[in-house]
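Input sequence (184 aa), recorded before submission:
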Amino acid sequence: MTGPNGLGDLMRDPEEAIRRMDDWAAGFAAKAERYQAAQAETERLRLTATSSDGAVSVTVGADGTVNELTFTNKVKSFPLEELSRQILTTMRRAQAGIADKVAGVMAEQLGDEDRETRGALLDSLRGRFPDPDEPDEQPPPAEPGPVPPSPAGGAAVPPSPTTPQASPSPRRRGIPDDEDNNPW
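Predicted structure, token format:
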């Protein structure tokens, strides 16, 4: 590492080394300021949804928590089950917009910086707050595989789905299993 721009050059020119470290530190400080601004703006986000009949309105923050819940007089005639359903449905519709709003804040504050981090955060938000109007993507049920022939030449009988599985051997008390201490 004594070639061009390597450590050898820095050792020969301490002033250049100090300048590079100052630039590096200033870059981190500017990045921290951008992230703090993005966090502050995200914390101020509010998303509101209203039920289709206008009876229920729910406002949520960027973390999905309900900040405001309002009703019109229409709800006085609702059965409790209907009121509960409308509250939850309206809350989920408000929460479904969180990822897009946060994405807008991040694009404005951070530009193209840290695409992987942004992608992971937004994927997490989309997973936590899916669009309630879109159908869940369920994988098709797996078809059973072919039944292998029995060793005696007759037709094999597939194992019963209720066949009991072998139970794990009991653990001794007082000796923790490695999995007991795993926080993940």
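Checked by second reader. The two ends are 40 Å apart (CA to CA).
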